[in-house]
Write a structure and sequence with these properties.
Order of helices and strands: HEHEE
Number of helices: 2
Number of strands: 3
Radius of gyration: 13 Å
Shape: globular
Largest sheet: 3 strands, antiparallel
Helix content: 25-40%
Strand content: 35-45%
Number of domains: 1
Structural class: alpha+beta
Length: 63
């Protein structure tokens, strides 16, 4: 696992200690990278003149 993937994993792990159930991000050109890390595409849209992909990952423990 590379440095970037480790950073993403650490952010997700830290967020699990909060009350948030889902994390979101947007990217202009790395959606396939985040998809490989478990993120799902929510939508694609134009934001400030750029096509972006909004993604999410579920982090809450299912009870």
């Amino acid at each position: 696992m590379g440095i970037g993937a480790n950073l993403v994993r650490r952010v997700v792990d830290a967020a699990r200690a909060t009350e948030f159930a889902t994390l979101h991000l947007y990217t202009t050109d790395r959606s396939s990278y985040y998809y490989q890390l478990g993120w799902a595409v929510v939508e694609r849209l134009l934001y400030r003149g750029h096509l972006v992909t909004v993604m999410s990952i579920h982090i809450a423990d299912d009870v």
